[in-house]
Specification:
With 152 residues, the protein is mainly α. The protein contains six helices and no strands. Helix 1 (3-26) packs antiparallel against helix 3, helix 3 packs antiparallel against helix 6 and helix 5 packs antiparallel against helix 6. It is elongated and about 50 Å long. The chain starts with a helix and ends with a helix. 26% of the residues are buried.
């Protein structure tokens, strides 16, 4: 792989992982989240950081791939839109305590991820596969968000 290609991959990983870490660090769950009733199957808090670290790396790699491929430029718009939704969720949920708006955002995020997978499947199968764990996690997170809205 050329140095310029490696630089693009590094940039996308830094943007997705660094952005996610920055947003996470500035929107910590805190006492408010701890006081909420949680649904069954809520994972332990320690699981979120390693899960998101892996996912943000995969998201960054997929983003770099579609950015670099001339035939995948339309996918890049979907990739950007899902990043906006991804980064919007934590401030809404953890800082603004707006559970309903966060749920609307996570549903839009989930739909964008599914749309990305469907569109990428024919143009860049690896990018589509890189988004599958992300889709599974966000689907699961959508359940958690919806359940928290319902039981609180």
């Amino acid at each position: 792989m050329k140095k310029s290609a490696l630089s693009i991959y590094a940039l996308f990983i830094v943007v997705s992982l660094g952005g996610g870490l920055l947003i996470g660090a500035n929107n910590l769950p805190g006492p408010w989240y701890q006081s909420l009733a949680k649904p069954p199957l809520t994972p332990p808090n320690w699981l979120f950081a390693p899960a998101w670290t892996i996912l943000y790396i995969l998201i960054g790699i997929a983003g770099a791939r579609v950015f670099r491929a001339p035939s995948s430029k339309d996918l890049f718009g979907i990739w950007l839109a899902q990043m906006v939704m991804n980064f919007a969720w934590s401030p809404l949920f953890f800082s603004m305590h707006n559970l309903e708006a966060a749920f609307a955002i996570i549903i839009m995020l989930f739909l964008l991820i599914i749309n990305f997978i469907k569109a990428a499947r024919h143009k860049d199968g690896l990018s589509a596969l890189l988004f599958v764990p992300y889709a599974l996690w966000v689907g699961y997170a959508s359940y958690l968000n919806a359940a928290i809205v319902f039981i609180n």
